[in-house]
């Protein structure tokens, strides 16, 4: 029987394993950690029964993922749940920019910016299921829907800060730049709109969903499917050199490019090894998990219903702090993403004690403690928050990297999403999943379409492996 080894059990590795097993291969997944899942783990970190997602938490790109839908993970217990409000961006005056799943409702509530929001999102949202065939894969290929992709693609070329100027209200400008800031990049650079436009469009189509029972439910469903297909998963197996691999017809690596270059060494073509070693990490995240009694007392009432809250103040402030982070300066008031997954999934709470997920953008290589800065930012928009905190725990960039080598220097996106790496992936090639070493393929979030629990990097790498075998 044809055999495949998958190194790494994040969503991309597990999707690659499932696709190959379904094609009839004998598949073994090797995971260095003692638990599977990579960024999609969920733990009881503070209070018994209180579920905290480790990294990947809210999934607008995963809920409509073609490969996750095709794999039928609902049969293995995966359930998507939606909050009443997808995302809120509170401002100091007590108002907020509010993102609903409905384009129409979002636009209407943005008042004077209703027409602009509709113009930007109505058409791509209506055609998203077809558009996703093109945006959830390599950008440098013949598109399935060239006209639709071109209409969507033109705004992505613009700096997010420039696109924000099209809006008249502070609520719309801040809401837009808060989503665009997910890219961990200065918002005045070309293509800084791309990730934000993708997230908003996908969210308007499918919602900012969470997985019932925590993000680990995605991993659990993929693992159960793989086992049903005859695959195997081995944890606590760290591959440091190619000589440790079992005999395999193909190997798919869910690793950062720099890590893969270290493992494969001079077996890689020299040009590929150089490209992988030059792969640039992005800026880092510093995370705080809270146990909060009674929830967060946001001044903006819509934020009390939002699964995600962007805590950063005005659009101008968002742009300024992202510039500071890029310049290596830690902002006094950082951009903070707050996850209130329990609003959609009450099973994560323990009575009236609720899990709160929050991380700040910090400079690459920063070694300080952002716990107080994150707490102060939440308190700024939710006076009395501190008094409701029962317990908390922090994860520094160094701890993120230690938990998951793909998160080099605490960068949870697996690499900087600058123009070159966003367009090409880890090296300049039309086949970003190929390593140049026959039978070896790369499927981590360093490859297109990039970060998220959508599994599409794994799906595309698996298809390359199947073509190689044919």
UniProtKB/TrEMBL annotation:
It comes from the Bacteria. It holds the Pfam family NAD_binding_8. This is FAD-dependent oxidoreductase. It comes from Actinokineospora bangkokensis.
């Amino acid at each position: 029987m044809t055999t495949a080894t998958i190194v790494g059990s994040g969503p991309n590795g597990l999707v690659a394993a499932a696709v190959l097993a379904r094609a009839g291969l004998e598949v073994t997944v090797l995971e260095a950690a003692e638990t599977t899942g990579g960024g999609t783990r969920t733990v009881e970190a503070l209070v018994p029964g209180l579920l905290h997602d480790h990294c990947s938490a809210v999934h607008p790109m995963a809920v409509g993922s073609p490969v996750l839908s095709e794999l039928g993970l609902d049969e293995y217990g995966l359930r998507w749940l939606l909050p009443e409000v997808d995302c809120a961006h509170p401002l100091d005056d007590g108002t907020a920019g509010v993102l609903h799943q409905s384009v129409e409702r979002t636009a209407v509530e943005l008042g004077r910016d209703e027409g602009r929001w509709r113009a930007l999102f109505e058409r791509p949202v209506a055609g998203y299921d077809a558009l996703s065939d093109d945006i959830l894969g390599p950008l440098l290929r013949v598109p399935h829907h060239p006209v639709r992709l071109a209409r969507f693609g033109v705004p992505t070329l613009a700096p997010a800060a420039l696109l924000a100027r099209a809006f008249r209200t502070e609520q719309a400008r801040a809401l837009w730049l808060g989503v665009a800031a997910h890219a961990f990049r200065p918002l005045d650079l070309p293509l800084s709109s791309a990730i934000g436009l993708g997230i908003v469009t996908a969210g308007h189509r499918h919602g900012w969903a969470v997985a019932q029972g925590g993000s680990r439910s995605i991993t659990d469903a993929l693992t159960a499917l793989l086992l049903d297909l005859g695959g195997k998963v081995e944890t606590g197996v760290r591959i440091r050199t190619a000589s440790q691999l079992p005999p395999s017809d193909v190997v798919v690596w869910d690793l950062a490019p720099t890590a893969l270059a270290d493992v494969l060494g001079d077996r890689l073509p020299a040009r590929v090894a150089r490209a992988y070693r030059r792969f640039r990490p992005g800026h880092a995240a510093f995370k705080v998990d809270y146990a909060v009694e009674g929830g967060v007392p946001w001044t903006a009432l819509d934020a009390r219903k939002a699964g995600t809250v962007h805590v950063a103040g005005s659009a101008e402030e968002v742009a300024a702090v992202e510039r500071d982070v890029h310049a290596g300066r830690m902002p006094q008031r950082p951009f903070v993403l707050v996850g209130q997954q329990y609003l959609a999934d009450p099973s994560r709470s323990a009575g009236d004690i609720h899990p709160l997920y929050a991380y700040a953008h910090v400079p690459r290589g920063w070694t300080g403690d952002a716990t107080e800065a994150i707490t102060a930012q939440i308190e700024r928009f939710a006076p009395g928050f501190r008094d409701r905190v029962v317990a908390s725990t922090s994860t520094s960039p160094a701890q993120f990297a230690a938990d998951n080598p793909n998160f080099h220097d605490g960068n949870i996106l697996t690499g900087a999403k600058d123009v070159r790496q966003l367009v090409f992936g880890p090296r300049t090639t039309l086949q970003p999943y190929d390593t140049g070493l026959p039978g070896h393929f790369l499927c981590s979030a360093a490859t297109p379409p990039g970060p998220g629990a959508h599994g599409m990097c794994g799906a595309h790498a698996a298809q390359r492996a199947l073509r190689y075998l044919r």
